[in-house]
Amino acid sequence: MFNKIIKRGHRKVAKSDGAAVDYAYAPTGRSSGPVSTSNIVVNHASRGGVPPASSQLQQLPATAGMVPLPGTIENLPMFRDVPVSERQSLFSRKLQICCFQFDFSDTLKMTREKEIKRQTLVDLVDFIQSGSGKISETNQEEMIRMISLNIFRCLPPASHENTGTENLEPEEEESYFDPSWPHLQLVYELLLRYVVSSDTDTKIAKRYIDHSFVLKLLDLFDSEDMREREYLKTILHRIYGKFMVHRPFIRKAINNIFYRFIYETERHSGIGELLEILGSIINGFALPMKEEHKLFLVRALIPLHKPKSVAIYHQQLSYCITQFVEKDYKLADTVIRGLLKYWPVTNCQKEVLFLGELEEVLEATQAAEFQRCMVPLFRQIARCLNSSHFQVAERALFLWNNEHVVSLIAQNRNIILPIIFEALEKNIQSHWNQAVHGLTVNVRKMFLEMDVELFEECQRQFAEREAKSQIQDREANLFLNGMHEEKLRKGHWLEEEDELLVAAVAVLGERKWDALAKAAGLRRSGKSCTLQWMNYLRPNLKHGRITAEEERVIIELHEKWGGRGLREGCQEELIMK
């Protein structure tokens, strides 16, 4: 268990490709005095990230990552209480205070210092939000470093890894709330206000909010604290909108998170939030749609239906999928076939979700694309109609409440009705749920009103198939029963069986051996009884060596009748003597 927790910690820190974070770090809550930060660096980038250069470390404030001594932090004046000329200097000093780290596992420890940092962060947020003045480029750089120091951290082990409950469903896991949220929230708010501020020059800001920074933000989406994920979602969306240079990179990085989730871990806390961002991004795609975006649909979005935890993010996923079809109706066939590929077999609740998404896609589907996929689609719908889980059958029948779907079905009723007619009839005949039975009657009536002639032809073919199936079932039962009896009656004869056979022959004679076997209560075939009687039990049966006369008779019979005639002739010519 300890190894799993350690591995989780390393994975949370090191996921994204890129350079190491260029700031120093001292472990929180363990220092009782000044801590040297010159050689302590945390890499948040994975797979070969390199430490920052020494020149970068020298630019950091001396307090970076340190736990302050009690009484060493003093309240600074608020921005509104100092002249405009001193505000940039005050801004820098406040950033240095916010670089201090605190241990929130003990709520009674250093409460004064924690409150000073909180008030300082509030003042920084108000200053950015008020637009009192542009921040100098140096202060912008220091602010992003302070933000990085606070938010880029080792996430705690996921609850399922911390407890060892590997099979716990994600929706059943308890919510986690980061104890340091009073400070984290304000740091995130500061970053958000900086990004959305009209005073922020993107040409300058993109030097600090670079690819490495974006990757580390994306890593934090795996946080189990939903409050943090909400802030991350808003901030990343704003970065995508403001920094056009980062857009392709952000899309590709999200792709990579999806690939790892689908094909490796099937565990990630922020898939829903990432899909929400993508929903807005897809809505803004220009037409004609780029091939890159279509590949993203096929390789990432559609396979997201595969994981067991799809119910957690299905609403956002369904919105993204529908956006693609509404943008380009020609993608409907690709999407529907993708849904059929990942259609659940045993998970009924997941199947209900798929049917709901299918209806949304069909609403945006045009006739030409519908015709390309309607045969496999309605084969699957027919299986859903006959589902013993009433919610699945009911949700499938609700498709006929959608006017656009009904119009598509009506245009192609010659192909669709023969596919689903049997499912409708079986529901009426034997489905246990009354609501499903009633909905099926309504759908059946709808088809009858569409095309009486087609309906009657389907009904006739169904009756023929049913009659043929019943005949085949009876024949199969007879065959299986015969095989069953044959198996029971093979093997060595018991003395009791011999006695029963002799008694039966004495009463009924040597005829109709199948009936004789049943009358005697023998679990033997008629053929087996015949052979046993003729070869062993017949009273005038001769035993011992064959005489010369008998040998002559056998030869003559063989020449006259062959092997089969020899057996019958021997019984008459030799045995009867």
TrEMBL record:
The UniProt record lists the HTH myb-type domain at 485-541
Tell me where in this chain the Myb-like domain is found: 485-537
State whether keyword Ligase applies.
no
Listed CDD domains: SANT (cd00167)
Question: Quick one: a GO cellular component term?
Answer: nucleus
The entry's localization annotation reads: Cytoplasm; Nucleus
Pfam families in the record: B56, Myb_DNA-binding
Q: Which SUPFAM superfamilies match?
A: ARM repeat, Homeodomain-like
> Sorted alphabetically, which keywords does the UniProt record give?
Cytoplasm, Nucleus
Organism encoding this protein = Abeliophyllum distichum
Q: What is this protein called?
A: Serine/threonine protein phosphatase 2A 57 kDa regulatory subunit B' alpha
Q: Which InterPro entries match?
A: ARM-like, ARM-type_fold, Homeodomain-like_sf, Myb_dom, PP2A_B56, SANT/Myb
Per the similarity annotation, which family is this?
A: Belongs to the phosphatase 2A regulatory subunit B56 family.
Q: Which SMART domains does its entry note?
A: SANT
Where is it mainly found? cytoplasm
